[in-house]
């Protein structure tokens, strides 16, 4: 086991500052007593940390006001609030064919966004990095802020990422995301870029703002085009020795599954197969053009027998997937996430009904309300966590003066 890190005064200052900023992210104007109750810090430490964060521009000290304008004896309590304009963070979802960047303030509120398709082909790393940078700058423009305000960036990629933030490029597809993005944007923009697996970020995002809020043992499955999962155990994200915890390649060996294709891909594929026959189906109403998963779900809602058959196959397949996850990891909750989640509510009941056929420890199953934003929400949370933990090392572009 690694040697424990000694609790030096500097480390304690960092931990205390991070705890205060984490509390302030979701709080309005608070008193020293409020901060003490939320963090467990002593009064002297709380005052010292708050005053230091005010000097550095992270907090604002508000003018003392008599409550309701009435008369009160004694000195009014000091009140502080987070300086939400101290800087921004970027959350990126870097897919094979699309790049999405979200700009967030220090409270996690979205200020701007840009999402653009990308034709990957044989384009090299430099061109891909330039494209990602362009999407990021478009997002900053939409937020009416500049690159100098960015305190941290987190980018989700469809590949394992190890504990050092490096892409594990042991497969050709994973290697497409081994771009050298972090050093490139550090050099050109001065940004600190954190890389993370997209399914891991989905788990962080859903546990923060989705169906898994407050759940300590959860698996979030990105289920649109390909299946991948992020694991939270005991409230902590699980990475594994080389960042591959949650990879679902073993599904190639599972009876009734056989690959890692997701709900959107299979619904589209099975719809195309049905349309190639003479079977009557409402799916023909959506032609010309290929039928997408949302249209299959819509046709099933109208009682179309072909679409209902596709949903039955999807439910059986996902029950087997969730069953293996439930057996291996024993989570309290399994969340189905990604763009297809907007339509996948109809699968919950049949999946839950069939789970007992495939596992002795069935988990509760839910669909994420975050849709295709689930990865960027997690990326924003990851970036905010970094800012809070490293606040004493970060210099703000324009520290605000106390009110």
Automatic annotation (TrEMBL):
Entry similarity comment: Belongs to the ROK (NagC/XylR) family.
Record protein name field: ROK family protein
Domain of life per record: Bacteria
Domain HTH iclR-type: 19-59
Annotated InterPro entries: ATPase_NBD, ROK, Tscrpt_reg_IclR_N, WH-like_DNA-bd_sf, WH_DNA-bd_sf
Gene3D superfamilies linked: 3.30.420.40, Winged helix-like DNA-binding domain superfamily/Winged helix DNA-binding domain
SUPFAM superfamilies with a match to the protein in the record: Actin-like ATPase domain, Winged helix' DNA-binding domain
